[in-house]
Design goal:
- This protein is mostly helical.
- It has 12 helices and no strands.
- The chain folds into 2 domains: 280 residues, no CATH class; 105 residues.
- Helix 10 runs antiparallel to helix 11, helix 10 packs parallel to helix 12 and helix 11 packs antiparallel against helix 12.
- Keywords: Membrane, Receptor, Transmembrane, Transmembrane helix, Vacuole.
- It is found in: Vacuole membrane.
Length: 472
Amino acid sequence: MKYGEQFAKESAPQWSLHNIDYNSLKHHIKVHTTKDQATAIAIPGYQDSALRVFEDELYRELCRQHDRVDMFVASKADEIARRLQHLSGQIRRLLIHCAVRRNQISPKRQRRFAKYENELLQCGTDIQSLQRFVGAQVVAFRKILKKYRKWTGSSTLGSRFRDTVLSHPKSFTKRDFAPLATEQENLLAMLRENVSIDYGASSPFTTSSAPSIRRNEQVSPSETLVGPTPQTTAYWNEYDNGSEAGEEHNGDGAYAIYINPDEDMNFPGVSALTAIFTSPIKKVNRWMRGKQQGEHEQLISGQSSHYGTTDASYFAHPPGALLSDTEAENESPPASGRRGSGYASSSEFPAGYKAYYAALPSLEEQQLMHYKERMLFWGTWACFGVSFLLMGIAAILIETGRHKMRLEVDAGVTIGIMTSLGAACGGLGMTLARQERMRWATVLSVWALFATTCVLNGILLVLVVRNTPLPT
């Protein structure tokens, strides 16, 4: 079995979308290192300039693959850490509340303890899946580098990528998941030590199904032990046991109405009145700007980076590091299982980056494409502006030109009209050269301006011919 088919099974199946593109990278290397191919550039045992160019390109692609996986591992580890922190607070508060009450746990709290235990078990499963996911990515990177060394005979790429990226302490390959696993095991042990949950109870209201708190406190001889009050069998009814009644014991689980003090307290109808005036403005703004395709829309805003493009600066200035290590430690103390400020964050990609992960144009090519679209857009309107300006100048010359210099005036007007038509044609050509899909309003506006320019310039030419005296 090929490793490309085995890779998806060894990794976490639920996160297969975030695996590195093993098959695409393997095919890319094979195409560029096989004889009698249109793009064959490498000969085993011979290092030429074309091979160095391809090696640098492949190194940048491997770095991009590493960045993407590193971001996913960091976000998933932070998510598990936040879940464990939230569960720890919930479990401790509930245990303290039950210990203070000194009575048997109600069926409602029993279900809550069972829910917390299931969530802790799910966190443990996610930690194991994340460890298996990271191990599969490391093996995939090693096999890709082995394929490159086998088909090119060059070991420089493998040494360069391992020493600069994979062996760096901030790489996801060096991430330690032991603190997360230890915290999950401690919380689960604490929950099971203090609470015994009976899952075989048929009814939550029977006394046999109510678990008890195992208290470690000692009872003094002067204290009188009072047994729990036996519960009498009763039928369920909506009035006493409905969802509006809250907790059936002591009323400590009743519902409460929460009012957010930071919420804007506007008069009723103010938002509707504001929408009447703002909706036309929003529609005009949508008409004025061009419609973007789904894959061209902004996914993650932030500054562009050169993450992983050079050997020395791969981890020196990672894309997510907006602060230095000292500043990040002073401003935000690290949580359990979280990374330092040098890790990549979700704000590292430039606007419009296509996150399809596989054999795509490089980041520089996409930025160049966006820059070209912007230049064509502004060039279109600049050409039409120059066209109308020249038409205005030509019209003024026709009306105010001297009769004694009529020949020179007509020549200048003719040159201005021809230049105006050329500028209009240039603006139309820039619009047609754009690859981005535009709104119908924009296309119709450009064609309307072009038609208007042609008609007005034709009228000016007719006026020039009429004012020119015929030879006698």
